[in-house]
Amino acid sequence: MKEEIIKIENLTKVYENGEISVRALHNVSLTIKQGEFIAIMGASGSGKSTLMNIIGCLDRPTEGNYYLEGIDINEKTDDELSAVRNKKIGFVFQSFNLIPRTSALHNVELPMIYGKVKAAEREAIAQKLLEQVGLSDRAEHMPNELSGGQKQRVAIARALANRPQIILADEPTGNLDSHSSVEIMDLFSRLNREEGNTVIIVTHEREVAEFTDRIITFKDGCIIKDETTGEVA
Amino acid sequence: MLLLENIKLALTSIKMNKMRSFLTMLGIIIGISSVISITSIGASAEAVVSKEFESYGMNSMYVYINWQMTQDRPIQYSDLILPEDIEALRARFPQDILYAAPYVTGSSETKVGRIQGRLSMYGVAADYNKFFHMDIVHGRMINQSDLDGKRDRIVIDEKASQHFFNKSNSVGETLTVTINEEIRELTIVGIYRKEASLFDQLDTSDSYTTYIPYPLLQSVDDATSYLELYTNGEKDQNRLGGDITTYLSRIKDKDPEFYRFESAELQMGMINTVLGTLSIAIGAIAAISLVVGGIGIMNIMLVSVTERTREIGIRKSLGARTKDIMTQFLIESMILAGIGGILGTALGIGIASIGMSIAGVAVIIDPFMILLAVGFSAVVGMFFGLYPARKAARLDPIEALRYE
Which of A218, B147, B234, B240 fits a disulfide with A46 by CB distance 3.0 to 4.6 angstroms? Predict the structure, then answer.
């Protein structure tokens, strides 16, 4: 039995939008174990992105509890959440979100700058990570000089910078062609299998979700299906 | 470590928007350069004035009749300062009055052969040159026997000698002048040389300054209304002046306010006060442009925060704390203002140097002013960067990431 890395209990998220309050998540409970490869599926507005933001410590629940590695996130200050994001979570976004006019290498170094890693060490790690995603020859390139697939690989290298346990990817293939999509998903599989990272992917595409071992489907802020597809039980 | 990163980041961002950064800095550049140039010009002018006074004699003093006291009555002989009064003053202040003579001047056209010219004549006593820094290059200065015998003697400037006689040494030649409607033939006994001073440059008259025995210029026998003194520099000039006029009023049996004095020190103090006030006033106006420059920085930083909303979101998602974002933007605005300050300082020094070199005066740059100006511009940058930086730091990361 593997360790529970994420534990969500009766989580509800309500957005107050003027006079209308929108319930994005309704009484969701979910447990994710270390080393799992999970897809969260659902149409837009199903609450999957909200869950993603809460898991990523970018947002706080309205009600319910969220424990990350046993830590109660509700009790953390904003600065402590920044540290949690920095050390424990690696983000991959649909639109890559690389810092423009900043080299691939420096983009990868960024989380380590906020993690107070020394400059020389930082550069060595970043170089190694770029090598790992097959971009060692693109280190000094600016984001606008890279293809979509390459950008996403830089983003993945960046997500790995501080050796976080969890990789959170929000529609990582949404802006990529099918060939690049497969490459990126293969990269995630490898990270999961070889490095033991817990990988959580938010997607609305069934083909992307098929790469993972467990598919959780959302509708109207609730989990409607939680299926295990792969050989890992 | 993060500080260095932030400085690099700020420099990159400034470089990326060169034109915009320059225009933003312009307010600070103008402000700082005005402050620096005006204070430098002020300091240089002050130095020139004191040097001028020193070369002329810091301890010269004039004692004269307070004309306000004689407005409603004709002036009497007893009002005037007589030779025995001068003797009495010298006897009363033997240590303090080193030179005393009636201050009388005259001016006359003169002609040597076909060469014409105008002479300004100053009446002096013996030893005048010992106190008022005169460089006698040929012959001698007016002496006691010239005074006693009311001899027709004159000491002229080397330039005048060149002008009238086409030679540096014209001792023994004569100049014909008109003094008190009387034609006199003055024999040149000495030639002096004087560096052109700022005051001489300001003097637009084309007359030559000359020195003759003072009795030659006196119209009312030996009485005078104006006394020139050279005093002991170790004494407080204002107090000494007061003592002298009080004593003079007493021996002349006049109202205590009947005689007044004016010291070089007092005049220099007045000029310096005027210069100082002027510097402060113009400096204050320049400081306003610094505030305007600061507002410019604030404006552009707000634009920058909006433009980089997404970047801020990314940074926050990667673990940047509120204070990290705050520091990033604060450092950027401080560097923007700081560079503006440095450029402004350079420009200001340039303006002051050019201005002073046109005036023919050595420029004085106060290193403290430079430090103050650059420091102050960084403070301006910090103050006006505070609000945009807070705005950036408080952005919600989810909102910021969604920003297009």
Answer: A218
